[in-house]
UniProtKB/TrEMBL annotation:
Domain Alcohol dehydrogenase-like N-terminal intervals: 37-124
Catalytic activity: a primary alcohol + NAD(+) = an aldehyde + NADH + H(+); a secondary alcohol + NAD(+) = a ketone + NADH + H(+)
GO cellular component, one term: cytosol
Name of this protein: alcohol dehydrogenase
Domain Alcohol dehydrogenase-like C-terminal: 205-336
PROSITE patterns in the record: ADH_ZINC (PS00059)
Entry-linked InterPro entries: ADH-like_C, ADH-like_N, ADH_Zn_CS, GroES-like_sf, NAD(P)-bd_dom_sf
GO biological process, one term: formaldehyde catabolic process
Length: 378
């Protein structure tokens, strides 16, 4: 137990540091600064690997850096002006924060906080500094979370207190992918009972979409993926028909139009392939067909589509984190999990110790996992 004065000291702990593009992570001794004003320092308990960590590792130029943005932990200490957290609180980290006072946070229309939204420079929101260093050399953050470390510092608006009886090694999934998929169905598309849904990409996000669509009573939940090995798991999450486009003799949008008698009511792009956004729009029905994008493209960020698709009434809608206002909404999602109203355990295909974090990256690169939960040392 640290006394309050000791807790405001630098902590030396282990973190998985990315030193260069696409390189293996290296477990290093890092110094973690005390939390500054409005910040909290968290002892990370569990962190799951999300595809975006790998995409950023492979494409962005900011190094050295500590990745990880889907995590749970326990508050170790709090900085000045922090009133809503205390040492010992159980929290989920938020890669997109919520300040609760900016015009977006108070609009009732948006979860894109103007103050604590997605951080892209690898720095803290408050002072554009870092809280990690190795031998005096600063280490950049990722999405203002950096959970591949035994301890991390986040803005108090980038964490949310949750039910302390919820298993941290499971609910870490709700801090990104699993929650994003469900939110896209409930908050962004607002899928109605009896509707026809098509999902492109059946990873954790796509399967979350399937689960949420099933809970809304969708009549058709068509899952599209080029890996037929995903078919059984997809059906367990609510997919009613599985299509592997590589096994079709005609374009997949035509197959979908036939099955749905004119096109789906809702299409969800969960791959991060802008070409597939076009296919998703083409798979929707005239009049009210809605395509929601969830995937983050690694290459070719521009979307192109024939204007006639829009002229005939289709909508293309983007979202971040499934439209959830993270601080306001996540506690109730955790409670739904505790009441067994939503399933997330089934996304966890691997449990690994922190030392084996590179194995998690390999499993995801090879498409052999849904979620790998990385357990930090106790
Ligand atoms: Zn993520
Ligand atoms: Zn805000």
């Amino acid at each position: 137990m640290l006394s309050s004065s000791q807790s405001q000291q630098v902590i030396t702990c282990r973190a998985a540091v990315a030193w260069g593009k696409g390189e293996e992570l290296v477990i290093e001794e890092v110094e973690v600064s005390p939390p500054q004003s409005q910040e909290i320092r968290i002892k990370v308990v569990s962190t799951s690997l999300c595809r975006s960590d790998i995409s950023a590792l492979d494409s962005q130029p900011i190094f050295p850096r500590i990745f990880g943005h889907e995590a749970s932990g326990i508050v170790e200490s709090v900085g000045s002006e922090v009133t809503e957290f205390k040492k010992g609180d159980h929290v989920l980290t938020l890669f997109t924060g919520e300040c609760r006072t900016c015009s977006h946070c108070t609009s009732g229309k948006s979860n894109i906080c103007q103050v604590l939204g997605l951080e892209r420079k690898g720095l803290m929101h408050s002072d554009q500094g870092t809280r990690f260093s190795v031998k005096g050399k600063p280490i950049y953050h990722y999405c203002a979370v950096s959970s591949f470390s035994e301890f991390t510092v986040v803005h108090s608006g980038c964490a949310v207190k949750v039910n302390a009886s919820a298993p941290l090694e499971k609910i870490c999934l709700l801090s990104c992918g699993a929650a994003a998929g469900m939110g896209a169905v409930w908050n962004v598309a607002n899928v109605l009972e009896g509707s026809k849904v098509v999902i492109f990409g059946l990873g954790t996000v796509g399967l979350s979409v399937a689960q949420a669509a099933k809970l809304r009573g969708a009549s058709h939940i068509i899952g599209v993926d080029i890996n037929s090995a995903k078919c059984d798991k997809a059906k367990a999450f609510g997919v009613t028909q599985f299509i592997n486009p590589n096994e079709c003799s005609e374009p997949v949008q035509q197959v979908i139009k036939r099955i749905t008698d004119g096109g789906a009511d809702y299409a969800f792009e969960c791959i991060g392939d802008t070409g597939m956004v076009t296919t998703a729009l083409q798979s929707c029905c005239d009049g009210w067909g809605l395509t929601v994008t969830l995937g983050v493209p690694k290459v070719k960020p521009e979307v192109s589509a024939h204007y006639a698709l829009l002229l005939t009434g289709r909508t293309l809608k983007g979202c971040l984190f499934g439209g959830w206002k993270p601080k306001s909404d996540l506690p109730s999602l955790v409670d739904m999990y505790m009441k067994k109203e939503i399933q997330i355990d089934e996304f966890i295909t691997h449990n690994l110790q922190f030392e084996d974090i590179n194995e998690a990256l390999n499993l995801m690169r090879e498409g052999k996992c849904l979620r790998c939960v990385i357990h930090m040392p106790k």
